[in-house]
Amino acid sequence: MTAPATPLLTVRGLSRSFGPRRLFDVGELVFPRATAIVLTGKNGAGKTTLLRMVAGLEPAPGATVHWTGHDAAPHSAPLDPLPRELRERIAYLHQHPYLFRTSVRENIAYGLRARGLPRHEIARRVDEALAWAGIAHLQDTAPERLSGGEVQRVALARAKILEPELMLLDEPTSSLDGQAREQVIALVRELADEGRTVVMICHDRELINLPGVVRWKLGDGVLDTQHR
């Protein structure tokens, strides 16, 4: 019998309350490798808060994270602040992505410049990301001239170029329709096919029903990771 794959990471003790109200309490949350996951639930259930805590963007007092490091050894640490190694392995995309006031190309290159990569390596990887997202013709365009679908594709390319293992997407198709929505769905499918773990907050039936997608549901303070 084949042994189960080691999880990408595991978070324990993830909880959030607002005054006397317990928004959610998740004892253990396992992120499997190379899996597309949709996170559903009613508005106000805490879906965005949960993913932002995992991404290190919200306080997570008491929570711990456990993962296998690049040295193949097991590691554990408080989730807050997010360990440096995990900051480079996790990407979070906001529902309404913020783009810097510069060109599309410079937006996509930003993260690689921050990491100090050589100029020629940045140029090569940006060219590949532009082609992947189908936005090479927009590389010199200012963000304010982009449509909603184009902004989402720039944001996906900007995240993908950093080669994260875990991508957390907050409703990537919520404000899109028609061809723009179809283009983003196709890119999300490709990210999962590449072997990344992609977790999407989602109400889009087409994304939820993609072949092989795992469904998690958050409701009444409980996260059901076996939802059907």
UniProtKB/TrEMBL annotation:
CDD domains hit by this protein: ABC_cobalt_CbiO_domain1
Entry keyword Cell membrane: yes
GO molecular function: ATP binding
Keywords: ATP-binding, Cell inner membrane, Cell membrane, Membrane, Nucleotide-binding, Transport
Pfam families associated with the record: ABC_tran (PF00005)
Domain of life of the source: Bacteria
Domain called ABC transporter: residue spans: 9-228
InterPro entries tied to this protein: AAA+_ATPase, ABC_SmlMolc_Importer, ABC_transporter-like_ATP-bd, ABC_transpr_CbiO/EcfA_su, P-loop_NTPase
This protein's name: Tungstate uptake system ATP-binding protein TupC
Organism this protein belongs to: Cupriavidus laharis
Lineage, uppermost ranks: Bacteria, Pseudomonadati, Pseudomonadota, Betaproteobacteria, Burkholderiales
Gene name of the record: tupC
